Amino acid sequence: MIGTDGAWRWLVSIFVVLAVMSSGCSALDGLFREDCPVPDATATGGKSGGATGPGVGLNKPDLFIQYLGNASGGRDNAAHQEAAHKKVTRAMAEKAIADASDIGAPYLRVSATGFAPSAFQRPGDLDLWRNDPAAYWCLFDEMMNDLSSEDMKIVPVFVWNWTQFPAMTGETVPQMMGNPDSESYRLLEAYVTEFVRRYEDHPALYFYELTNELNLRADLDMVGRCRNDERGPAELCGPVGNFSTDQMIVFTSRLADHVRSLDTEHPVSSGFSMPRPYAEHLRREPEYSLSGPDFTPDSMTEFKDNLSDIHRQMDIISVHFYNRKGDNERFGIEGHANADLLDVVEQISVELDKELFVGEFGDVTPYVKDDKDALFTRNVLSKIAELKIPYSAPWVWEFYETSPYLTYDRRNTYFTLEPGRTDIVISKIKEANEALGAPTPSSESPDNTLPRVVITRPLEGAQMPCNPSIHVVASDNSGEVSKVALLIDGEVEATRKTQPYRFGLESAQMGFGGQRITAKAYDRSGNVGQYTVTAISGRSILDPIFKGC
Are residues 43 and 131 in the same domain? Predict the structure, then answer.
């Protein structure tokens, strides 16, 4: 159950929303802080005029939690490091938006609600919204306006983590999905109401998405699987529950209807993945049933029936498409890098008179971190261009999940796309967007744009170990950084010409005490961008066991 203070805050937010709706004002006008400008409903950037038609976007699920400072391990930081961490993740978020705009990606798919918590009585990404909604929406306004200034749009996802809202209220997923009067569903509905009322007229809003791959959890024994999973803590099982495909359809239909009751102009997507190869058989005999599970592969007709049923109340059909365990090899389609299943899905979308969103896709075994050719991803992009699929987004853009200086370190990040690391795939994204007729960024002549650069390790004010490693990310609107130089107190200590920009230094190069560390990024036109932090070199002399380096 939600605590007394939390319940009171929730009721207050509901009363505010109802009062605003009944007054005919823009939602939450009274919650704006004086130092937070009203979201700009008219501003556009000017590079390409903004995304208005078909195009290949990008997945950037952590974008807003970078603005919050919760991304890349931020929730685990000591209190004295919070501001320094947020400074870095905010800079990385702004860099990610600009980099995406530079390659002509018209929109980003973003988790509007973040991810945490996944267990009861744990901190989460919506804590600021519940405790200080004015500050929360002020920060979200900044992100939306940053997107708009780069002619970028957003596809906001409301339920990225299926257990988030139940975990916030002490309930389970089936309670949220099955009971519209449950605290978790009402909390979700309150958030969606505030979001839609605030941004329905914002130029950065593209369309809404409800969930992230919720259909992949339907009809499975998620409770049993969680309890038997020794990799995660048992507390994660608290909000987990089993649900059927039909229960999911009722839930997503209700939520879609609520969104459309607030905004009739922007379409709604499900956020679902490609149905499992046995989705309809499992629907009839779930894993948690006495007779189940039935993992018999579905026929083409059953595949179509499932895709049609789960998108009954959706404007846009969503599929996520990977070549994991042969998921792309069905109905006689063969080949690990074969993307022809999209022909089938696109034809179904035409028959249902709905648009199609290939909301995620990427190479599995090998991942792009190991094979930069990424043949499956390139074949998907070619198929998207051939079929004129209106919406698509590869997984995943500049994703540093566990820390600001580490990527390719866990499975979600094995797909990370970033200038200087995955230029082959980026060039194919550009080609696909050109084929789709998406607006392309205009080149600047002469080029006066400074490269973007961020020192991601150490944080401002951090105590560095002996022989520290300095980590930097950098990019340029031209697509190429010619070099990155590292300076200590104004003296160049090292340079790198290629990603990753990591500098291993000896303590003798660092001196002792406070050090000004500057990274300078250079482009081919001679422009120089720089980023500086001050950190402490060596162990503090106040340490009783200090022995130097």
Answer: yes
